[in-house]
Design a protein that fits this description.
single chain, four-stranded mixed β-sheet, Glutaredoxin, alpha+beta, globular, 4 helices, about 80 residues
């Protein structure tokens, strides 16, 4: 399984939903909480190609995007192969 990194903040329902989906798939992930870390959020914006929302999810070298994109991958049947 590729390394999964998810950037989050406290009190974010989309972050919780994304974590729940990955957990339901048995996928371990590294969570990087950006609450109160403005310099880290700037780095994330650069890494994600300009995205400023959370969560931002990376599976291996693939930038998935946010919660909506993660669920869309799952609905399309493309998340499981990406996690394999």
């Amino acid at each position: 399984m590729p390394k999964i990194v998810m950037y989050t903040i406290d009190w974010c329902p989309y972050c919780e939903a994304a974590k729940q989906l990955l957990s339901s798939k048995g996928a371990a992930f590294e969570e990087i909480n950006l609450t109160g870390k403005s310099a880290e959020r700037i780095k994330l914006r650069e890494k994600s190609g300009g995205s400023t929302t959370v969560p931002q999810i990376f599976i291996g070298e693939t930038h998935v995007g946010g919660c909506d994109e993660l669920y869309a991958l799952d609905r399309a049947g493309r998340l499981d192969p990406l996690l394999a």
